[in-house]
Each structure stands twice: as structure tokens, then as C-alpha cells.
Amino acid sequence: MSEQVTLTQFIIEQQRGLPDASGTFTLLLNNIVTACKQISHRVNRGALLGVLGSAGTENVQGEVQKKLDIITHEIIVKALNWSGHVGGMASEETDDPIKIPKKYPKGKYLVLFDPLDGSSNIDINLTVGTIFSILRCREGVDPETEDFLRRGAEQVCAGFVLYGPSTMLILTTGKGVNGFTLDQDIGEFILTHCNMRIPEETEEFAINMSNQRYWEPPVREYIEECLAGETGQRGKNFNMRWVASLVADVYRILNRGGVFLYPADLRNPDKPGKLRLMYEANPMSFIIEQAGGLSSTGREPILDIKPQSIHQRTPLIMGSKREVERIIDLHRRFDRPEV
Ligand code: F6P
Ligand code: MN
């Protein structure tokens, strides 16, 4: 029989080397994974369970909620709130942080999550996912909003689960990135993608071209360079992909390189970009950088941003290192042409 490493074995072995590891983190991750297996089942059964379509409500961002946005949010809250490992949670689907019910002990981790990323794709049977970010907090206290507002660089773990042709978990605890595939027969995530690395160079970009007229000049310039192909100054042809599920676009980049841009959108100055810093950009940036890539707003590293609010939005440019460096350089030259 071939040697298969389960997620639990992998995490326990990784934690063993750490002096202050108590096993709590492994248990927390197990609870998250249990929730994601339940979500995988619901997403996979889809119309058979009657879970597709709109819920007829809006979330704090003013986006129409799908039935599955609400169901998946509730699955995660229920899987984590009793455990004693979590001090508080924040979700894309609720305005304020979620408190742990009084009857349960409060633990030393904060979990921030997007329960169903790319949910506009759910009714057309494309890949969607769950994104999560884990921070430490003071044990036993009820965290306030302020306690959540920490830089992405402080994350102790970030991951996402893809509900695609296979259900996969991509995970980092700050020691590289590993991918696990759910074996549906035995209900376990098995290590299948060891130490994922993003190629530094790429000929593939991902952006929603329909927003072109709202982009800032450096982003326009970059995309024009790519579109000019081998006859332009880059001297090579570029390909474009846009799944419109962040989880799927990031997974592609982890596998074969590429650059993802959701830049600042000049349509609405109150919304600098579309993606949310704390439960989309931060965890994805932690993963991308742990795999050798880079992540930036174009002007500052994503992981250095001091959050002002839980649902804050940010421009997001990430992926293959050399390409992101080039885009940062275009921003710098635009902001300070004299340098
Ligand atoms: O969560 C937001 C999201 O659905 C991401 O998964 C995705 O990258 C992006 O929005 C797609 O945005 P748009 O519909 O503007 O292309
Ligand atoms: Mn999302």
C-alpha cells in the first residue's frame, strides 16, 4: 500500500517541532476542515438539495446573498463556536464580529473567513471555495473589533478550500504551502501537492477587462504591455484567464504561475478595489508569498496594511514575483516620475 499522509498527521508532525505547541491548533484546524467537508457535500449536491439560487437578502457589502452564502456561514460558525479554541470570528456575511456563546469557553485564536468565495459562480456550476485566516488573541477574553484589526503579517495560518472537480485544501502555517485532496471514500484530506512553488516569470495575467476604463494609468500601462505581445516592449505573448472565483484564479497561479489584478476602481472612491483585506487579500497573500510569489496594492505590501475596519477593501495585485515587481515599478514611476 502506498504511504498516504493525512492532513492531521501532517499538521501534528509540523507542530511537533514547535516548543509551545499544545495541540489546540491541530484541533482548530480539524474543526475548520470538518465544516469544509460539510460545505463540499452541500455544494456537490447542489440543486438536489435545493440550495442553489438567491436568498433574497443583502450582506454588509450590499451584495445579494445566495442561499449557500448563508448556509456555509452557519456551518462554519456552528463547527467552531463550541470548541473552546476560538476567541471570536469574523465573516464576510455578518456586519460585526461573531461572539462565542457565553456557555462555551473562549480560546486563543481568531478566525476570519469568506464562507463561499466566488458564490456568483455557484449557480453555473463553476469552482467556488472557502477562505480562512487565523490570528492569535488573548485567551479567555471577548475580543472587540479592534482586536481583529491586525496586519496580515501576523497571521499564524491561512488556507482555502476549493470545491471544484476535486475538493482541495491549500494551507500555510508560515512554512511553505501544501495542497491536500479530499478522498471522498474515506473522508480525509490527503497530502497531494507538497511544497507548492510559483514560477517567478509568467506569460499569463488575470483581470476583469470590463473595468478597464476605471483603472489607474500604471495598471492600464501594464495590461497594454501584455496585450502588445511579442511585438511590444515585453517581447512575448501573454495569455489571459479570469474565472471570477478568487480561489480558482489563485489555485491556477500556485500551479503554473501568473499574475492576478483586482486594482483600485476609480468608479467609487469609497471602495478602493473590490476584494476585502481581512478575509480575502490577507490569507491569499500569505499563501502566495509563502509559495515564493509577491502581493501588493501596487504601492504597499498587502501583508503590511494596518486594517481600519473588518470589511475594508483593498486593491490586490499578486502572483509571480518578477511580474508583480514590474507592476509595482510602473506605480512608482507614475507616482514619482522624477526618480
Ligand atoms: O469575492 C469576490 C469575488 O467573487 C472573487 O472571488 C472574484 O475574484 C471577484 O469577486 C470577481 O469579481 P468580478 O465579478 O468583478 O469579476
Ligand atoms: Mn469572496
In summary, what is this structure?
The protein is of the alpha+beta class and 339 residues long. Helices cover 30% and strands 22% of the residues. 6-O-phosphono-beta-D-fructofuranose binds at residues 117-118, 120, 208, 244-246, 274.
Helical coverage, percent range = 25-40%
Annotated CATH homologous superfamily of the largest domain: Fructose-1,6-Bisphosphatase, subunit A, domain 1
Largest sheet: 8 strands, mixed
**Uncertain segments of ≥5 residues (pLDDT<50)?**
none
Q: Which strand order spans the largest sheet, edge to edge or round the barrel?
A: 4-3-5-6-7-8-9-10
The CATH class name of the largest domain reads: Alpha Beta
Global shape? globular
Class of secondary structure makeup:
alpha+beta
- Rg over CA atoms, rounded to whole Å, is 20 Å
Give, in order, the helices and strands. HHEEHEEEEHEEEEEHEHEHEEH
Number of helices: 8
List the domain count as a whole number: 2
Small-molecule binders here are: 6-O-phosphono-beta-D-fructofuranose, manganese (II) ion
Number of extended strands:
15
Termini, distance in Å? 62 Å
Task: Walk me through this protein's architecture.
By secondary structure, the protein is of the alpha+beta class. It has 2 domains: 7-193, Fructose-1,6-Bisphosphatase, subunit A, domain 1 (Fructose-1,6-Bisphosphatase, Chain A, domain 1, 2-Layer Sandwich); 204-335, D-Maltodextrin-Binding Protein, domain 2 (3-Layer(aba) Sandwich), CATH 3.40.190. Helices cover 30% and strands 22% of the residues. The chain is built from 8 helices and 15 strands. It has helices at residues 7-16, 24-45, 67-80, 145-148, 217-228, 246-256, 277-290, 321-335, and strands at 54-58, 64-66, 86-91, 98-99, 109-117, 128-136, 157-163, 167-172, 177-183, 188-193, 204-206, 239-240, 259-262, 294-296, 316-319. The strands form 3 sheets. An 8-stranded mixed beta sheet has the order 4-3-5-6-7-8-9-10, sandwiched between helices. A hairpin with a 5-residue loop joins strand 1 (54-58) and strand 2 (64-66). Helix 2 (24-45) packs antiparallel against helix 3 (67-80) and helix 5 (217-228) crosses helix 8 (321-335). The radius of gyration is 20 Å and the shape is globular. The site of 6-O-phosphono-beta-D-fructofuranose (F6P) has 8 residues, from loops.
